Structures are given as C-alpha cells and as structure tokens.
C-alpha cells in the first residue's frame, strides 16, 4: 500500500535547483523598479555616497581651509564646482526613469509583471514588442532583468547608480563621471600640497586668525572657520595619507570608466553593443585549433609528392576500393597480374611517376622538340596522337598499361588486351 503525503510534495520551481546553493528557488522580480531609489538599494550605491561624503568633509573641512588666502579661494571655487556638479548630475542620473516611453505611459509600477515563458516566445522583445511589458518599444530598447522593464536606448545597468543608463540619463551619467574625475584630481593636489608644506614651511598653512590662539607648532586646527577643532600633526598626516590612497583608488576606476565611454562615443556605439561585438569575435585559441585546408581538386599531383606507401600484390581487389573499380562491381579474390605488380613495384621504387597533366614529348637530337605526344602501334611504329589526348611513352621492355595510381577507374579487359598485344609484338620482333 502506497502512503500519500500531501505535505511532502516539492513546490513548483521556476528554475533548476543548483547544488550547493542556499537560494533553492529563483524567481523574477514581481514589480518593475521606478529608478535608482527603489528598494532594495545596492551596496555599491551606498559605497559611492559614502566615498563622496568622506571626500567632501575632508576636503572642505580639513585641507582646503589650511591653504593660504589666494589659493584657498581658487580651491573653494574649482573643487566646489566639481563637487556640486557631481552631486546634481548624480542625483539626476539616479532619479530619472530611463524606461521606454510606451512603458512610462502606463505609470503603473505597482502591478506585478508577467513571467517570461520561453515555450511561447524565444526572446523577451520580439518584432519590437516586449512580451513582459506587453508594449511596443523602440529599435534600441532592451529589457533589463534587474529593473524588469524596457529601457530606451539601453546602454548598461549601473550598480553604482542602482539604475539603468539609457537615452534619457546617459549624459547625466557621463557628467557624473567627468566631474568626479576632475574633483578627485584637484583634491589630491590640495592634500599633497598640505602634506609637503607641513615639512617644508608649516607657517604657510597657519595663516588663519584662529591659529593665533594656538600654542606650539604641533597643534593644528580643522573645520575652519566655523567650528575649529584641535588635532595633532600625526592625525593630520595620517588622514592625508588615507585620503590620497582612497582618492587614487577611486580615480583609477573613474578614469578607466571615463576613457571607455569616450571611446564608445567616438565609435558611436553603446556598452551593450560593444559587449555583443566582443562576444561575436572568434576566440584566438579556436583559430589555432582549426585544421589546415585540404588542397582543392584543381591542385596538381606534383605538389603532393611521390607516394611512399608500398604496393601489396597479395591484397584482393574489392569493389569498394578507391583505386580499382571493376565494371561488374564484384570482389575478386585473385592476385594482381604479375606484369602489373612488377610495373607498380618498379615505379614506386624509382619514384618516377608523373602526375602532371602535361604530355611527354619526343626529343630527337639535332631537331626541335616536338610538342605533340607520341604513341606506339602494335607494329612498333610510333605515330603522333591527336591533340588533347595524353599517352605516356613506355620505357624499354615495359608494357603499356594505364597507371592505377593516376586514375581511379581501370578496365581489366583493356589491360589484358594491351598485355597480349605487347607480348605478341615483342615475340614477333624477337623472332625476326
């Protein structure tokens, strides 16, 4: 008797269960994301805001106020402009909804999205119609799996913004990167200037009126002029070292990203198109593994070189052989005829087989070379052959047979007739 347990059945899964994974069930997001502020927030997004806040506090609260009067005003203006421009463009890139216009017209992100069924549709977007968003989209629109909506002029999904970068917010994204690079470079220059002047001429950095009440050169003030706080030289220099290292790491990533997007703009392509092109390029390792092309049928047999395989006289002739194909297509168990076998062994040993399509010519001393091929009649008299036909001139004492290595078809009756004719000719000549 079979025990039925209704509570022990496995639930219906949307993806195969991966071994060793904690997430046994994989489900697509039920709702579409509006912008970068939609929950859940990405860890990279929080890290980007923490780095920006740290650089702004350290730059405008510690090191820029220590600069002398002419340079402090310039630092406030340039670095302040870069940081404000970065803040505005960053917020705009995160807040803007980059979805396609047809998706935005719905204005209903609260309803759950349908799940993509590969049995009904091969692609998410088919004939400019998204099967998930159930709207018609533009030619460059792509459906982002993270945001779960179609993005107009899709470029990529940025984890630092927690939002997709498309046609509507691409330039805000580009300004965000550019302003961040400029701000980091200027801030590094200011911190290095303070670090060097601290050892060379510390009096240059102590021009603020609040330093008149400070006793000793080992005490420094930060957060001038609003809320001056005292600190030591070690704390000031350690903070400068940490700031420079963090700024250099961020600058390396930002410069790489900025140069990459400058290259994409010069080529007129997006990040998505760049990735697709890289995937379509052949792998260099696969090119090395491709075998060399075989010679075509039109190649001459001279390029193949002489045959090195020995001739087996005891092998039976089969109808499936590529060298001898009999008309009756039957398999013969007899051996090759002795004249043919001797001929093949002698030719294979001397390596004098001619595979070219040119005909042998008759050479007579003292006379011009004849261009017509010659043959031999049964009576032993040579006569020119018709143009277009090629017949090998036989060697002395060698029967005229068709070379089995030069042709894939040979008639046994013709070979037998040629052997009998040659034997009679030699016998009559010997008798005379």
From TrEMBL:
It is an enzyme of class 2 (transferase). One of its GO terms (cellular component) is endoplasmic reticulum. The keyword Nucleotide-binding does not apply. Its EC number is 2.3.1.225. It is found in: Membrane. One of its GO terms (molecular function) is protein-cysteine S-palmitoyltransferase activity. Residues 376-404 are annotated as: Disordered. It is a multi-pass membrane protein. Keywords: Acyltransferase, Membrane, Transferase, Transmembrane, Transmembrane helix. It comes from the Eukaryota. Residues 127-276 form the Palmitoyltransferase DHHC domain. Its main location: membrane. GO terms for biological process: protein targeting to membrane. The chain crosses the membrane at residues 46-67, 73-96, 170-196, 234-265. The keyword Transmembrane helix applies. It catalyses: L-cysteinyl-[protein] + hexadecanoyl-CoA = S-hexadecanoyl-L-cysteinyl-[protein] + CoA. Belongs to the DHHC palmitoyltransferase family. The DHHC domain is required for palmitoyltransferase activity. This is Palmitoyltransferase.
């Amino acid at each position: 008797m079979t025990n039925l347990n209704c509570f022990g059945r496995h639930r219906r899964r949307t993806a195969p269960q991966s071994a060793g994974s904690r997430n046994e069930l994989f489900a697509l997001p039920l709702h579409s994301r509006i912008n970068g502020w939609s929950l859940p927030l990405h860890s990279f997004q929080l890290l980007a805001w923490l780095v920006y806040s740290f650089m702004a506090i350290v730059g405008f609260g510690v090191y820029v106020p220590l600069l002398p009067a002419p340079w402090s005003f310039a630092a406030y203006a340039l670095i302040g402009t870069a940081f404000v421009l970065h803040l505005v463009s960053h917020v705009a890139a995160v807040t803007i909804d980059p979805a396609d216009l047809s998706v935005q017209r719905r204005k209903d992100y609260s309803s759950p999205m349908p799940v993509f069924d590969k049995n009904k549709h091969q692609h998410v977007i088919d004939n400019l119609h998204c099967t998930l968003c159930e709207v018609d989209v533009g030619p460059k629109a792509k459906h982002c799996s993270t945001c779960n909506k179609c993005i107009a002029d899709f470029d990529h999904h940025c984890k630092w913004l927690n939002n997709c970068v498309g046609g509507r917010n691409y330039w805000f994204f580009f300004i965000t990167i550019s302003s961040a690079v400029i701000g980091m470079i200027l801030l590094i220059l200011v911190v290095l200037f303070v670090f060097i002047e601290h050892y060379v001429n510390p009096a240059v950095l102590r021009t603020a009126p609040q330093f008149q009440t400070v006793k000793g050169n080992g005490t420094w003030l930060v957060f001038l002029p609003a809320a001056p706080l005292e600190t030591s030289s070690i704390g000031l220099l350690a903070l400068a070292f940490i700031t420079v290292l963090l700024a250099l790491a961020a600058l390396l990533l930002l410069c790489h990203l900025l140069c990459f997007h400058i290259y994409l703009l010069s080529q007129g392509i997006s990040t998505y198109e760049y990735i697709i092109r890289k995937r379509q390029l052949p792998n260099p390792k696969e090119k090395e593994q491709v075998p060399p092309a075989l010679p075509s049928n039109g190649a001459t047999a001279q390029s193949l070189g002489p045959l090195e395989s020995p001739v087996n006289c005891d092998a039976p002739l089969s109808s499936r052989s590529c060298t001898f194909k009999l008309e009756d297509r039957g398999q013969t168990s007899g051996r090759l005829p002795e004249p043919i076998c001797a001929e093949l062994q002698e030719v294979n040993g001397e390596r004098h087989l001619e595979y070219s399509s040119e005909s042998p010519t008759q050479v007579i001393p003292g006379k011009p070379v004849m261009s017509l091929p010659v043959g031999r009649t049964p009576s032993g008299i040579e006569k020119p052959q018709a143009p277009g036909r090629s017949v090998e001139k036989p060697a002395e004492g060698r029967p005229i047979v068709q070379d089995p290595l030069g042709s894939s078809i040979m008639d046994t009756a013709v070979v037998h007739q040629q052997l009998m004719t040659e034997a009679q000719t030699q016998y009559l000549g010997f008798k005379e």
